[in-house]
Amino acid sequence: MPMDQAFLGRSFPFAEPYEVGIEKIRQFAEAIGDDNLLYHDRVAAQHAGHPSVVAPPTFAIQVIARAQDAVMFDPALGLDFSRVVHLDQRFEHLRAIYAGDVLSCVVTVESIKVLAGNDVLTVRTDVTDIENAPVCSAWGTLVSRAAAS
Amino acid sequence: MGNSRFPGRSVMIAFESVPVGTALPSLNLTVDRAQLVRYAGASGDFNPIHFNQRIAEAVGLPNVIAHGMLTMALSARIVTGWIGDPSAVRDLSVRFTRPVIVPDDDHGAALEISAVVGAVDAQARTARVDITAKFEGQTVLGKARCVVQLS
């Protein structure tokens, strides 16, 4: 079943803001094996000029995941998730994410294509802070491989 | 600091000291099953192909594979470790071209990460670092690039 082209260009605000916890940043940094003090030690981060501990650059996937899922898992879109692989990912940081941030997401469907029988979906997610200032934009492309015939 | 969107931070590497072609210190990392479990918990990505061999094989994979986002995060460490302050990362992008297969043994999968400055922007005082991540001698990421703010 092809994906619904009516989703193309539409933006989906995600209702629930993401509150960035200091322990979540530490847990994420541990999971990627990175002991950089700026990820773990609030005092060290503040000494370096930051408001609190800094999130690793790919931590934004945490922030955007539920907002993206709400769009990509929408049955009306018609993406077959059982066959999905992640093709590419990009983060553009307008500033770093910090513990204590309260972030909101808007997901926009940028591209819906069929390439060699595979469904290819690109979504952009714009992240803003509590003052509505931009923090990060992320682009992710998913491919739902055509069923073997 | 030239760019008002990015208030001054303690980035110690001067733009002038990083010409195109500069190689970053390489990074050798190992990904084992325990790390996949940790990353699943930290990221909330509980797709069973990252911890369940039976399900990985059922969808046509040779074995459990690392999360693409974990491979991306590990590859970015070559840049953040070099620059010291991860808030200097402006743009990070990768294409996932080959899975990293993580065996159920005491060693895990070895990742060899290298990087070189591929371009610089004198006006913005940024450098584009081109990252290569290899597993079993083959690249696992395509067009892996990281733009960092220098001082």
From TrEMBL, chain A:
Pfam families: FAS1_DH_region (PF13452)
Highest taxon of the lineage: Bacteria
Protein name in UniProt: UPF0336 protein EH165_11815
Lineage of producing organism: Bacteria, Bacillati, Actinomycetota, Actinomycetes, Nakamurellales
Domain FAS1-like dehydratase residues, every copy: 7-136
Family per record: Belongs to the UPF0336 family.
Transmembrane region(s): none
